[in-house]
Design a protein that fits this description.
Strand content: 5-15%
Cofactor: FMN
Largest sheet: 4 strands, antiparallel
CATH superfamily: NADH Oxidase
Structural class: alpha+beta
Number of strands: 4
Organism: Paraburkholderia haematera
Strand order of the largest sheet: 1-2-4-3
CATH class: Alpha Beta
Shape: globular
Pfam family, one: Nitroreductase
Family: Belongs to the nitroreductase family.
Radius of gyration: 19 Å
Order of helices and strands: HHEHHHHEHEHEH
Helix content: 40-55%
CATH architecture: 3-Layer(aba) Sandwich
EC number: 1.7.1.16
Oligomer: single chain
Length: about 240
């Protein structure tokens, strides 16, 4: 594991221009990767990512997150259990979510953005509207971590409130950026949420811990067409209001 940095130390670059370029690159090039190479990720690299991510902002320093890392036989076994349920409509229809990640009623512009990214992905894969079988198969790849060698699950104590979800979201972003800076890619996945009870049982996660989301971690397979997907982002002027007087 890497040596802990002095939190008051100057940047390890010759100028802040280099710092901003490195940070900006990691931010802009982070994407949800949906096809990974089988190349293993060393435990030391996972620990290195978590080592720096733990310094994420958190209200009154409560640090509410907990990380569960699955690899090897455990990851394969968990994927098999989840996919067996996912392929059984009777069993999967009875599943519930640990919390409302998405709104119960979609409105514009959010529903339009959601549809666009979905159809752009299906378009790349040659999946036509109405092809429910192929949609199901593609969605099921979530539960195989898109073939990534590492799966992560993030939980918080159930006694915590919405602020801890905000803190954990910042922690997730730090994990993804730290991974990107090390040449790795990620895919955060709320798709795992409805299987929170299955995951808790398989990993012996205590009842007091609530699943926030899962994440795939590994090296992107750039030969796969789905990894050419680049989502749009609205300009700053669309979501920012400046006040001066």
């Amino acid at each position: 594991m890497q040596k802990e940095m002095d939190r008051l130390s100057p940047p390890p670059f010759t100028s802040f221009i280099d710092v901003s370029r490195a940070v900006d690159w990691a931010l802009v090039t982070r994407r949800s990767v949906r096809a990974f190479l089988p190349t293993p990720v060393a435990r030391e690299d996972i620990e290195s990512i978590l080592e720096v991510a733990r310094f994420s902002a958190t209200g009154v320093n409560i640090q509410p997150w907990h990380v569960h890392v699955v690899t090897g036989a455990m990851k394969s076994r968990l994927s098999a259990v989840i996919n067996e349920i996912n392929d059984d409509p009777a069993r999967s229809s009875d599943l519930d979510e640990p919390y409302d990640y998405y709104p119960r009623e979609w409105i514009a512009p959010y529903v339009d953005r959601r549809r666009k990214v979905g159809w752009n992905l299906y378009g790349l894969l040659g999946i036509e509207k109405g092809d429910k079988e192929r949609m199901h198969v593609q969605h099921g790849r979530n539960y195989r971590f898109f073939d990534a060698p590492v799966g992560l699950f993030f939980t918080v104590d159930r006694v915590m409130r919405e602020g801890s979800l905000l803190d954990t979201g910042m922690f997730l972003q730090s994990v993804m950026l730290a991974a990107r800076a090390r040449g790795l890619d990620t895919c955060p996945q709320a798709a795992f949420n409805k299987f929170h009870r299955v995951i808790a049982d398989e990993l012996s996660i205590p009842d007091n811990q609530m699943l926030v989301c899962g994440m795939s971690l590994g090296y992107a397979d750039h030969d796969c067409i789905e990894n050419s997907l680049v989502t749009d982002r609205v300009p700053v002027s669309d979501f920012t209001t400046f006040y001066n007087e």
